[in-house]
Amino acid sequence: MVNNEMFDLLKIGLTEGESKVYLALSELGSSSVGPVVKKSRVAYSNIYDILNRLIDKGIVSFIIKNKTKYFQAGPPSNLIQYLDKKQDEISKEKESLMRILPELDKLREIKPKQEAEVFLGKKGLRTAYEKLCKNGSKNDELLFFYIHEDKYAEESNLFYNSIVELVGKTKNRGICNSEYKNSWFAKKSSHLTMKFSDLPLPGNIDIIKDKILLVSWGENIFSVLIHSQSLANNLKKYFNEMWSKSK
Questions:
Q1: Which residues does 183 contact at the CB level (< 8 Å), separation at least 6?
Q2: pTM of the predicted structure, to 2 decimals
Q3: Residues 192 and 176 sit within 8 Å (Cβ to Cβ)
Q4: Among 89, 164, 194, 243, which residue is least crowded by beta carbons within 10 Å?
């Protein structure tokens, strides 16, 4: 049995067992089950199931002699007919799928998207901000809480200065701790509308649309991007309540 022939049959959608049996019958001619099992080396327990599948595909037939079934491989042209039939079925399935795609999209829109991604380091944080601000426009608003701490102040200032072109596509409104007033980045950032508060802030958090970005500044920068409309809505409400109490 030629392996290359078997692999070619597998490529047209036959299983390994179907390929082996078809090739065995091609070499044997009309044959009862025993020689087919021996030639193809498929398990006897599987042979009738495989033969029936090949008959259904139209590439194997059988006759009965003396109450014994003799199977034979159809001509190679039957393989072409099998592929043509398979192609027609795929075309019909594709047409059916195309008809229901709009409904599938509606189902996705109805069910809120909820997922989270974790990013490490400054490169990861930039990727997180790229995803956060993707598809943002001047009509959108990015809300943020920021806690300024001296131990990572310079590193975070330099980072946020490097992503001005990303966050600058939207409106930016933030609440920071009072210590941030003296930061050089805060003083130069005309694209940011900020208020300052002495009340405890929940952390370094950015919110836009249905996305929330949590950032932990430290020796190892760690950030989590969350997609959740309900969580984003709750944080926006909290932000606006804090905004009204900040200066």
A1: 148, 153, 157
A2: 0.56
A3: no
A4: 89
Helices 16-28 and 44-56 cross at an angle (nearest 10°) of 80
245 — phi, psi (to 5°)?
-105, 0
214 contacts 118 by C-beta, under 8 angstroms: no
pLDDT per residue over 99-110, tens digit each? 888 887 777 665
- Interval 182-199 mean pLDDT: 89
Kindly tell me the burial class for residue 138, based on how many C-beta atoms sit within 10 Å of its own C-beta (0-12, 13-18, 19 or more).
exposed
d(CA 116, CA 55): 50
Cα separation of 68 and 89, whole Å? 34
**How far is CA 91 from each of CA 10, 97, 242, rounded to the nearest angstrom?**
21, 10, 57
Query: With respect to CATH, is domain 3-79 assigned 1.10.10.10?
Result: yes
**Overall fold of domain 115-245:** Endonuclease; Chain A (3.30.870)
For residue 171, pLDDT over 60 is answered with: yes
Query: Would you say 167 and 178 are in contact if contact means Cβ atoms under 8 Å apart?
Result: no
| Higher-confidence position of 136 and 212 | 212
